[in-house]
Amino acid sequence: MNPILAALFVTALLALAVKQLAMALMHGSVFDGLRRAVHKRMEQRVPGFLALNQLMTCKLCLSMNVSLWVVVLPAAAIGITTNVGALIGLTSSSAFTAFSIILASFLYGMAVSGLAKAFWNFLEFPESRYQKCASDLTDANDAAEDLREEIGTLQVQLEEAQTTASV
After folding, report:
1. CB count, 10 Å around CB of 9?
2. What average pLDDT does range 38-59 have in this prediction?
3. Contacts by residues 101-104 (CB-CB < 8 Å, ≥ 24 positions apart)
4. For the chain, how are helix, strand and coil distributed in percent, rounded to 5?
């Protein structure tokens, strides 16, 4: 298999996994007790729980955090321990190599997170997305028709003004 296609396939699978895990954290019955406990402690004004509650209700934030724990940290650990830097010509003992691998892992994880968010947007409630597009198209067509009528009215007024001015 082509290595680029394999990498894209793995990235798409990771993105779907991140999306599903984030969705389970937000809506899954398995994590219902956790969500309630976080919300209760937030209401009691326990430090840090407001931010944690906000994290649990934000799709983008939660996807990014899941990606950090599920993609970035394992990728960085595997990259450093398996000497991936040698494959791209970096010496294995340099701090720069470790930093490069960690940075690449972070960027890859954020890309997976973004793709997960895109999957979330396009796979969740597609009919409402299409209804919104249809509504926007109808509004645009109505606005175009109003502009055509206005242009016609202005042309008639211009012709009347030219006729009056020539007399």
Report:
1. 12
2. 88
3. 101/76, 102/76, 104/79
4. 90, 0, 10
Distance from C-alpha of 108 to C-alpha of 102, rounded to nearest angstrom:
10
pLDDT for the residue numbered 37: 92
Q: What is the pLDDT of residue 91?
A: 64
Go through 126-148 and write b for each residue having 16 or more CB atoms within 10 A of its CB, e for each that does not: eeeeeeeeeeeeeeeeeeeeeee
What is the reported pTM? Answer: 0.62
Question: Any alpha helices (H) in 28-58, and if so which ranges?
Answer: 32-43, 49-57
Q: What is the pLDDT of residue 40?
A: 92
- Residue carrying structure tokens 């490069």: 100
